[in-house]
Write a structure and sequence with these properties.
alpha/beta; Aminopeptidase; eight-stranded mixed β-sheet; 11 helices; 10 strands
């Protein structure tokens, strides 16, 4: 994955379209890479502040479909630039920052040791219960009444805000962005599973964001465009109600310290959503790989709608496209895919 991101950076950086960046370093010392995708005017410096839409995956290690969907969406925006006017308009206005794996230590662990590992690999006060739940480690409402304090719990977020190294690194990077003039206008945090689009707040079902009506309206349209892509239904709910259901009933999770609450309240990303991807429980976290492309396409279409909405079109410009243009946009033509795969294989042989 990192090799692929480096290759994309090398192929498209010269055009001023892609920049591979680092969000920070994990507990075990792994880099947390990201792709910043945006089309800047010729006279605009590369470090000029921009409005930012952030999309993250892999806060929970076992949710592989979230990681692949972030990368698929990144590639879809890159390769659609010259043939999709909506994509071009979005990239001219915003920087899209794609972070496929916030939790690289846990993700690596799911490949090598335990496929269903959820948390990070950070040591805790109980040596036999490693790892923190990154999605309950952010500072906003971290100390809510439902906060999980048991280190062996799947949703243990630590004994203080930002104890989890990776959550602290993401927040520090984001704060640095805002201090340098960038503004977060949207945030999508991808997870699995249950096919839900969740709106803030996660910490409480009584508290509501001031723009709740707009949040819900946009969420319904995100669900609509994901459904139009492949026919899969996504429901909309408050994040405080978004617990995954299992055979024993709803899974009780801590509510405080979530990423979407933090980015919404602390960094002003007022269109902030957690999207739980496929499926609804048949495969759960073990989603077959033939779902990678259709789920990635669902996220790409959702991001296109969100970008068009943030441009001020409320989705109308997209809706007025002819059916043939829309079909072309929905079916990525990987004109450079053979070249990319060949080059990636050549580089892997040489390393």
């Amino acid at each position: 994955m990192v090799a692929w991101m480096r290759l994309i950076d090398s192929l498209f950086r010269g055009r001023g379209l892609v920049q591979m960046i680092s969000i920070g370093t994990s507990y075990e010392g792994r880099d947390i890479p990201a792709l910043r995708v945006g089309l800047r005017p010729d006279d605009e410096a590369s470090d000029h502040p921009r409005e930012v839409v952030l999309i993250t995956g892999g806060l929970h290690a076992r949710e592989w479909i979230a990681t692949s969907s972030v990368n698929y969406a990144a590639w879809s925006f890159i390769q659609s630039l010259d043939k999709d006017p909506i994509v071009k308009s979005i990239l001219e206005r915003f920087d899209l920052v794609f972070v496929p794996v916030i939790n690289p230590d846990g993700y690596e662990y799911t490949w090598e040791v335990d496929r269903l590992w959820r948390k990070s690999r950070q040591r805790t006060k109980m040596s036999y219960c490693q790892g923190l739940d990154l999605d309950h480690s952010f500072s906003y409402q971290w100390g809510s009444s439902d906060h999980q304090t048991e280190p062996c719990s799947e949703s243990y977020g630590g004994d203080e805000p930002f104890q989890a190294v990776e959550a602290a690194q993401l927040a520090a990077w984001a704060k640095n962005e805002t201090e340098n003039g960038s503004k977060f206008v949207g945030y999508l945090d991808l997870h699995s599973y249950s096919q839900q689009i969740l709106v803030p707040y996660s910490y409480s079902c009584q508290a509501e964001p001031p723009n709740m009506e707009n949040l819900q309206e946009v969420a319904m349209n995100l669900a609509k465009h994901m459904r139009l892509s492949n026919g899969e239904f996504y429901t909309v709910a408050s994040a405080c109600e978004g617990a995954i259901a299992n055979s024993a009933g709803p899974l009780a999770e801590a509510r405080g310290g979530s990423a979407i609450d933090y980015f919404y309240h602390e960094l002003g990303a007022h269109y902030s959503y957690q999207i739980k991807l496929r499926d609804t429980g048949s495969y759960g976290f073990l989603l077959p790989s033939d779902n990678i492309i259709p789920v990635g396409e669902e996220i790409f279409q959702a991001m296109k709608y969100l970008g068009d909405f943030l441009l001020g079109n409320n989705g109308h410009e997209w809706a007025q496209e002819s059916s043939s243009e829309e079909q072309a946009a929905q079916e990525p033509i990987f004109e450079d895919s053979d070249e990319v795969v060949t080059e990636l294989r050549r580089r892997r042989r040489n390393t």
